[in-house]
Amino acid sequence: MRLPSLNSVLRGQPYIVPKVVQLMENIAEEVLKGNRLALSRAITAIENEHENATEIMKTLYPHTGHAYVLGVTGPPGAGKSTLTDKLAKEYRQQGKTVGIIAIDPSSPFSGGAILGDRIRMNGLTLDEGVFIRSMGTRGSLGGLSHKTADAVKAMDAFGMDVILVETVGVGQSEVDIVRAADTTMVVLIPGMGDDIQAIKAGILEIGDIFTINKADHDGADKLATELNMMLDLDGVEKDWRPPILKAIASQNIGIAEVVATFQKHYDYIRSTGELTARRTERTKNEMLDLLDGRIGSYVRSKIVDNGKLDAYVEDIKARKTDPYTVVGGIMQDMLK
Prior knowledge:
The model is unreliable at 1-17 and 106-114 (pLDDT under 50). Helix 5 crosses helix 11 (255-272). The chain has a 7-stranded parallel beta sheet, sandwiched between helices. Strand 6 (209-212), helix 10 and strand 7 (244-246) form a beta-alpha-beta unit. The protein is of the alpha/beta class. It is 49% helix and 11% strand. It is globular and about 65 Å long. It contains 14 helices and 7 strands.
């Protein structure tokens, strides 16, 4: 019997489960062999939450843990995509392979995303040593797609030396990137008004490196001074003080220094054991996220498909009960 095509599998057309499992396992094996098309299909299966995507990850996971994962975050308009593009080219000049995951915001209505970051990196698309994947946030509020971690693992298993994760434009609380990256760089630009007030409540605390892009604009020195003042106010003595760099990504100025600083930070966290600690914490968070997702899906399947949810809602609307009592009862039933 002929195996179904992957496209038919991902569209949810009828298929024979054992054959599909075999197909997915083959995709994982092809990823490990360096097949770029298989990597693209694997990430598609992961992103679309295909029921056998877990089988792909089980096969790939033993081959992960080698790539250096860099987070690039900052407010909208900071030039993150242009900077990411230049960083990738600098790494390629060093002979390293690069994976890029560019996160774009999804529409809260249609679920679609413009995925414009990829357009800004067109110059990399013909480079066999670079793999670019755009992903929508799909409702995630932390600056990342829920499936980013698995996409990173797929690129890692594929053999990428460096993986750059560029988040959506973030504000004060969208700081999930710190949980996904070994090193996090916050990109800022001068002339944003009350610069520090706009960032200090959230993303200022997560930066291992700060880069002021568009440093030829007025206010770059002032912003650097304010950043230094904020770091001084922290009051905690640290062996690694986040450096403040300046760059003009559009002119490829300062890029080599940023890459060199990434390497310095990597050497630091590896020598102090911080790299191991960060990756351990990442594993814990990923396990908890998986548990939350599985438990939530299981509970929803038990109360949505059979119409119980609608009945609960009607009782709550009529004030016959309350959401807290209902949820407590559901949890008791689930744990029996």
